[in-house]
Design a protein that fits this description.
Blueprint lengths: L2 H9 L6 H12 L5 H14 L3 H12 L15 E5 L7 H11 L4 E5 L9 H5 L11 H11 L1 E5 L6 H11 L7 H14 L4 E8 L8 H17 L3 E8 L7 E2 L1 H12 L5 H17 L6 H14 L1 H12 L5 H4 L9 E6 L4 E6 L1 H10 L16 E4 L6 E2 L4 E7 L2 H14 E4 L9 E5 L4 E3 L1
Parallel strand pairs: 1-4, 2-3, 4-5
Antiparallel strand pairs: 5-13, 6-9, 7-11, 8-10, 8-12, 9-11, 13-14
Helix pairs in contact: 1-3, 2-4, 4-9, 4-10, 5-11, 5-12, 5-14, 9-10, 12-13, 16-17
Length: about 450
């Protein structure tokens, strides 16, 4: 078998066999196939596409290129959640404890953020002492006894995907449904989940800007999961504005605590209930989403979700007293209100720009080497559809550098589109994709 022949076959619209895909992934991972041939191959795939079987084979070949986590010692159906990314997306911190309190094991492998704000691990490290470093045996024990644990992603998880993504990133071949779906699903499957709930974002602050493309990606990922024997459901959700009000690590943790108390932002609470309901159904704890939602609402109302969050933080070395006393989280030296320059209705909030404004003050990483300031970020006061007066507060910036604060403020003001006519915000949840159907709301 020669790579040259595979390139030509796909370039001419041919269908690759399982053996050919495995040959390519194995050879590239081991360094036997050069970048220039893989670049040509990716471009051929970009234009000629892959069918469902090819996409599933590519995904599983990437899964098998490295370590596959065995979670069979964990009792029950392990359900994982994955978000395609957004601004102010704190759902894992809320969903994890809620779902665990309902008896579904949450065995989560998370990474650190590269972009607007930190990843789940960075946010959790706002709690002094919290650690994701633990042997797999301890991870499994924690999930069996506490029903929840979060561990850092192993470096050897789907290494073929890491190599391929780096190459696609510099050869203009990222934007292909099969390649995007395979990249996401390879890591989820290698992480050992039995079932997967996908939160596929759409809108200005999402990777997929158009709703139609988001449904297409969701269908592709659900098809992969189904093909390889994982129950998979995708929920398509709005990211035309930040989720919730907080953008920044400790600020998002505080908002997660409020949400677990039943006092969180309406959109963040709604999304967590919607995603969590599907996790409970896939985990065998409810017959349908309506029944599951009632269980989760009771978990919040009773305080069981918040208690589970404390239990989880303590089990991984964190100081859970911060949950009852959020004022203990470090406050930066600059806390300044941003006031509107005009009056009217908020027509739009460029989520990406809000994220960049948080990045400027140090809430995220511009490079892998960047050090995150866990205390900084932005808290919004106005969302799409809200009325705002001149000089009324639209946000507060938390920063430790005045020059960075000024740049962030300008970016934040430009992110808001304020108009005279009344605006109605679009639906948070756009639809659901299962193995059997696509439902659009």
């Amino acid at each position: 078998m020669r790579m040259y022949d595979l390139i030509m076959k796909k370039r001419n619209g041919g269908e690759l066999t399982t053996e050919e895909i495995n040959y390519f992934i194995d050879g590239y991972t081991k360094g036997n196939i050069p970048d220039y041939q893989v670049s040509a191959f990716m471009m051929a795939i970009y234009f000629q596409k892959m069918n469902k079987r090819e996409t599933a084979d590519l995904t599983m070949s990437m899964v098998n290129s490295g370590e596959v986590i065995d979670l069979s010692e964990i009792e029950g159906i392990k359900v994982d959640k994955h978000s395609t990314g957004g601004v102010g997306d704190t759902t894992t911190l809320i969903l994890g404890p809620m779902v665990a309190a309902a008896g579904v094991p949450v065995a989560k492998m998370s990474g650190r953020g590269l972009g607007h704000t930190g990843g789940t691990i960075d946010k959790l490290e706002s709690f002094p002492g919290f650690s994701v470093e633990m042997p797999i045996e301890k991870f499994i024990e924690n999930v069996n006894t506490k029903k929840i644990a979060v561990v850092g992603q192993t470096a050897n998880l789907a290494p073929a995907d890491k190599k391929l993504y780096a190459l696609r990133d510099v050869t203009a071949t990222v934007d292909n449904m099969s390649l995007i779906a395979g990249s996401i699903m390879s890591k989820k499957i290698a992480s050992g989940a039995d079932a997967i709930v996908l939160d596929v974002k759409t809108g200005s602050g999402a990777f997929m800007k158009e709703e139609e493309s988001s449904f297409e990606l969701a269908k592709e990922m659900v098809d992969i999961g189904t093909h390889v024997g994982r129950n998979t459901v995708a929920v398509i959700t709005d990211m035309d504005q930040p989720l919730g009000y907080a953008v920044g690590n400790a600020l998002e943790v505080k908002e997660a605590i409020e949400t677990l108390k039943g006092k969180g932002p309406e959109d963040l609470t709604e999304l967590c209930l919607a995603l969590g309901a599907h996790m409970l159904v896939l985990g065998g704890k409810a017959e349908n989403a309506d029944e599951a939602r009632k269980i989760l609402e009771e978990i919040i109302a009773s305080g069981k979700g918040l208690e589970k969050f404390k239990e989880f933080i303590e089990a991984q070395g964190g100081d859970s007293s911060y949950i009852d006393h959020p004022e203990l989280f470090k406050t930066p030296s600059i806390v300044e209100v941003v006031k509107s320059k005009k009056s009217g209705y908020v027509k739009g909030i460029k989520a990406d720009d809000v994220g960049k404004a948080a990045l400027v003050v140090g809430a995220g990483r511009e490079t892998k080497e960047s050090v995150i300031d866990l205390s900084v970020g932005i808290v919004l006061y106005k969302k799409i559809g809200d009325f705002v007066k001149v000089d009324e507060a639209i946000a507060t910036i938390y920063a430790n550098d005045m020059d960075k604060k000024k740049v962030s403020e300008e970016m934040l003001l430009s992110a808001y589109d304020i108009v005279e006519e009344k605006i109605i915000a679009s639906k948070l949840i756009k639809g659901i994709v299962t193995k059997d159907e696509i439902i659009k709301y």
